[in-house]
Amino acid sequence: MSLSFKFFPERPNVSNDLAATKIDIFKGIINNARTQFFYTFNRTELETTTKTVYQKFSDRKVFVHVGIGGSSLGPEMMVSALQKNDTKFIFINNIDPEEIHSQMNFLKNVELKDCLFYFVSKSGGTAETLAALAIITQLLEARGVRPSEYKNYFVFATDPVKSELLTLAREWDITTLEVPSDVGGRFTALTPVGFLPALFAGMDLDLFIKGAKDAQADLLSTDGSTNELLAAAEFLYHLKEKKGISQTVFMPYSSKLRSLSFWFTQLWAESLGKKKNRKGEMINVGFTPIVGYGATDQHSQVQLFMEGPNDKAFIIVEVEKFAHDFPLHSVLSSNNLSKLSTFSLSNLMKAEMEGTIKALRENERHIIHVKIAKNDEYHLAQLILFFESLTALMGDYLMIDPFDQPGVEAGKIYAFEFLNQL
Ligand SMILES: O=P(O)(O)OC[C@H]1O[C@](O)(CO)[C@@H](O)[C@@H]1O
Fold first, then answer.
1. ipTM for the assembly
2. Which pathway is this protein engaged in (predicted)?
3. Whose alpha carbon is nearest atom 7 of ligand 1?
């Protein structure tokens, strides 16, 4: 795996015996019929069907992605990290009428033949996504498009076995991609959910999948001295058990990877925040994710991180080499400018990150520093698989099921009760 790791104050000691035990457990998790996230991208037919769909609609200049939670956060993160072309992306990922108004206004002014609407919902029954479908069909109707023609504008991604969207897909003859039944919504970035937007963003899908495949063996290694998945799990679990640290600040030093923090937030929060353990006993556990990005948040949250309660672990993601850089020399004379003049912007970013890590260490904070050589498809896929694997494994440490989300159901039921009273 080409992610490199440093742990502060120190890497936990993972003996080979412990590694063998934990990898056995991890294999049990990823080989379970309902939790196949670790292997889905090995299914080449998922890649080829997505490429075929892309070919069919590749002339589209506006890609409207409709979905919420895991059906949107992965694609948003991938596109904002690595888009390489001019495709206009619109993410309809909320039901704020004012935002939808702006999005629909934009769409009213573009040629429909330039648009592709990608509706993603694992369950096919999510109210927010179906609401957006209703509004988009109104837009199409107003432009004279009949339901029999929706197939020219829509692609669906949903569970191939059980989903309301399947019924509509059959009725309207919509091209439909698979969200594998055995992969939970928040683990679907490395499936057609992420693949299709990646292709429309001009990303190299083969390199993306290769990155994930190349990480598999290292994540399963029973060498405790090199398996960083196990080290990270031990590090975070013991911080929680011994020091009560259960907040996790996720802070890439990169604007392009800022959305990785939002993707991580759902993965970490929805998977690990649980009322009951696997035996059904009340335990109310979880790790609270905190979104950050450097260097910007040094001027926002870092004061708290340094001097506030020592109740947070920090995951800092570094991009070693940026694709672009700028020298900082200037014709202006100023003391502060002249201190920068012999350096580049990426030198400043690196120095600020290292400076923050050093200061955090002086304040006895706990840090996992992850480095990628560059922000590309290969490394992004490795980050995704690493954090998905870490989440699954932490579920075992916490003795909970990281693949369900019973806590969000009650709110949905009450929302419909309120709706029916309106
Ligand atoms: O893909 P779906 O089924 O529309 O679900 C969207 C999101 O809603 C949840 O089920 C609950 O928040 C998430 O787990 C999921 O990512």
1. 0.98
2. Carbohydrate degradation; glycolysis; D-glyceraldehyde 3-phosphate and glycerone phosphate from D-glucose: step 2/4
3. 69
